[in-house]
Amino acid sequence: MKRAVLYLALALAVSPALAGSEAGTPRDMVLLTVSGPLGKTNRGPVDAKRDVLLAGQKAQFKSAFEFDRAMQATVTGQPNTFAKPASFSGPRLRELLESLEAAKLKVTFIALNSFAGWLAPQDIEASDWILALSADGVPLGIGQQGPIWLVKSGMQQLDSSDPKHGDWVWNVFYIKIGE
């Protein structure tokens, strides 16, 4: 029981800030970059030589925020490809955006394969979205929807009116706030 309380306390303590060190710069491998109208940033503009994937996506920003694997929250969900619900762990999207003082605008999620899906601010407020780093305690690898999978609690519900709606985008490595 003490161990469970300790893990819960640790998860809650790190939930608002996925950044690694006290200075706000990641200590480990960067898994996610967020750009757009942010109140907090920890990196400068895209460097075509250093940021090959971002440059390949034609990302342009003067500053952004980089994250490593430091923060966790948990939701239970069931994507269409899973036979039963699973427990997904990662940062809560709403808390991550609040911690960056992000403007409440359309949020676009860009995957390693160039797929881009989006969520409106009301979508983010209405559901318990997380940026899942693991499923049932196992880290999500590149071949298993990782490094980051946009997941919400409950069953998968796709917005059939727009195939680019952000429901359950996987292989996320970049988030853009605003158009």
Biggest pleated sheet: 5 strands, mixed
Rg, rounded, reads 16 Å
Number of domains: 1
Let me know the average pLDDT.
Answer: 79
Strand content: 25-35%
Total DSSP E strands: 12
Spans of at least 5 consecutive residues with low confidence: 1-23
Your description of this structure?
The chain is of the alpha+beta class. It has one domain (2-177). Helix content is 17%, strand content 27%. It contains 4 helices and 12 strands. The protein has helices at 2-14, 52-56, 93-99, 121-126, and strands at residues 32-35, 64-67, 73-78, 86-90, 107-111, 116-119, 129-132, 134-135, 138-139, 149-152, 154-155, 172-177. The strands form 3 sheets. A 5-stranded mixed beta sheet has the order 2-1-12-5-6. Strands 9-8-4-3-11 form a 5-stranded mixed beta sheet, with no helix packed on it. The longest helix is centred in the first third of the chain and has 13 residues, at 2-14. Mean pLDDT is 79; it is low at 1-23.
Provide tags for this entry.
five-stranded mixed sheet, 179 residues, alpha+beta, single chain, 4 helices, 12 strands
What would a concise description of this structure say?
17% of the residues lie in helices and 27% in strands. By secondary structure, the chain is an alpha+beta fold. The chain has one domain (2-177).
